[in-house]
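User: Hi! I have a protein structure encoded as tokens and I'd like to know what sequence might fold into it. I'm fairly new to this, so please keep things simple.
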């Protein structure tokens, strides 16, 4: 894999990790014992991963990541709307 492709794939992974943490907030208070503990460990590890990567990003990489997260936000918003419509019609 060339350096440019690796950079893009790495930033996509970081954007997905940011969304994992964001989505995870919906489950706060909903999980029981061991599952809750595993969830909290995963959330903490993901947050540490994202923070560690973001600290080393160049300004253009940070902008790319922010733009990518924005695109993912929009896609998730549309997905939620579509899923909500499906549930209403059932």
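Assistant: Happy to help. Inverse folding works backwards from shape to sequence: for each of the 90 positions I chose a residue that suits the local structure. Here it is:
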């Amino acid at each position: 894999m060339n350096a440019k492709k690796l950079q893009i794939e790495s930033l996509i992974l970081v954007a997905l990790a940011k969304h994992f943490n964001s989505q995870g907030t919906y489950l706060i208070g909903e999980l029981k014992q061991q599952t809750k503990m595993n969830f909290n460990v995963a959330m903490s590890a993901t947050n540490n991963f994202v923070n560690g990567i973001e600290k080393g990003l160049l300004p253009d990489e940070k902008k790319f990541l922010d733009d990518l997260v924005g695109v993912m936000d929009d896609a998730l918003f549309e997905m939620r709307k579509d899923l909500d419509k499906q549930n209403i019609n059932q």
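A useful reference point when you look it over: The chain has one domain: 3-89. Feel free to ask if any position seems puzzling.
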